[in-house]
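ok trying this again, last paste got cut off
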Amino acid sequence: MSDVVSITGRISLLWRDVDPYHGDVILLSLDTDETLAMNTFELKGDLARRFPEGTMEEGDRVCVDCIADTIEVVNQETGETSDERVAVVADVRVLGA
């Protein structure tokens, strides 16, 4: 599935970190315009590096574009694997304060 889902809202929480495997990581939580829309997002690597400190802040309005991807999930109790569909952030646009 390559359909893009766009979610717009105001950043209520922005957390920056460095992951040993993915490099720069930004975690976003939004107060979304649409009730019950997905509201927590993770930006990794090149996408996170597009937003250095000060270019995106809590209170800014953003539009997050997500696409569906399939990942392999391992059940910790049984060791069995299964495929699961997850939303992956494809792009983020800062709309202003």
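PB: full thing came through this time. The first helix runs from residue 45 to 49.
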